[in-house]
Amino acid sequence: MSGGVYVSVCVWVGLDTLGVHDCVTSQEGDMRSVARVLCQTHLLTSTTLSMHTKCRGGAYPFTKDKVQRVQIPDSKVDWDVEFAEYLPPCYTAPHILAAPPYADPEIGAAGFKPRWNALDGRVSRCSHVKPYDVVDGFPRNVCGRTGVAGRGALGRWGPNHAADPIVTRWKVADGKAVIHEKTRKPILQFVCIQRRDSGHWAIPGGMVDPGERVTTTLQREFLEEALNSLEMTEKQKEKSEKQLKELFKGGVEIYSGYVDDPRNTDNAWMETVAFNFHQDDLQGVLYSMLLHAGDDAKAVKWQDISSTLNLYASHEDMIEKVAHRHQAHWSRNLAVLPTCVEDPGGPSSN
Ligand code: BGC
């Protein structure tokens, strides 16, 4: 890996060319046919593995330091690199072994015959990244070794699919957009929640339920976590949904793929599809709507976007893409602004 750098490349793709992506959003007929520019992080080359760092090394989350990951040097993350002495501890959290409805049974359990790399009934076991290997009956993390086997705190073997709504507006003072004094660019704000499980600030995303459309998950999670719809009356909920209808019609996909989530293991990992829902109107509904944390969120706020953000998993990377998409303020240090190069095509562009 070249000094911990990963490469961001703008690629022209039609969703149909992504293949595996189709599997997850196969019901999203309205979005599939549209070719568009996705600014994607290439995960499959050795220069990209720095993406896979928060789920390597140290203690596994929520285990009070009792489950320690095996240390893996950058050079040995890739499954294809020989690592004979690699013997990760196997850990699946007790609450997952207790078989909640969203979790798979253990591999080998009677009647559990998962269809890997496929739509398995209503559960998508496809990766957005690439078809994954299944070794001795266990799916292998698409981004390489993590230092712990089993499912950890994740319910599904293989990919666990989430969706992340990035709801943005311009920062306003006295009715005008606020311009950053150094970069001279307008400042964007997004709805940011504090996760109840880890305390990290994050995008208000959540898991895609079996058979659920990603567009439904995006809206549902936003309503539950940022507006506390679970505690609203039906009438209040209807009103909020109506207010947000236009905004949620105009979503733009920002990212789909692997997430460097601290819960990932060798056999279970997080993937997400992130959409940006942006309101340009400085007097639009997002300025009057009251945020109220609910469900898995313990706090919620409008957060100014800049490179100083420190968010859960890979959420900063997604927010950065949104800032660039709107030509908003990001970095105080103009010299480090990333450049997007047009992908020439060829074997490395998946
Ligand atoms: C969160 C998503 C996040 C995903 C991967 C889910 O628990 O709700 O916001 O992208 O995990 O880290």
TrEMBL record:
Superkingdom field: Eukaryota
Pfam families linked to this entry: NUDIX (PF00293), NUDT9_N (PF25969)
Chain ranges passing through the membrane: none
Coiled coil ranges: 220-250
Protein keywords: Coiled coil
SUPFAM superfamilies, per the entry: Nudix (SSF55811)
Boundaries of every Nudix hydrolase domain copy: 169-325
Keyword Coiled coil: yes
Annotated InterPro entries: NUDIX_hydrolase-like_dom_sf, NUDIX_hydrolase_dom, NUDT9
GO MF annotation: an example: ADP-ribose diphosphatase activity
Protein name: Nudix hydrolase domain-containing protein
Upper classification of the organism: Eukaryota, Metazoa, Ecdysozoa, Arthropoda, Crustacea
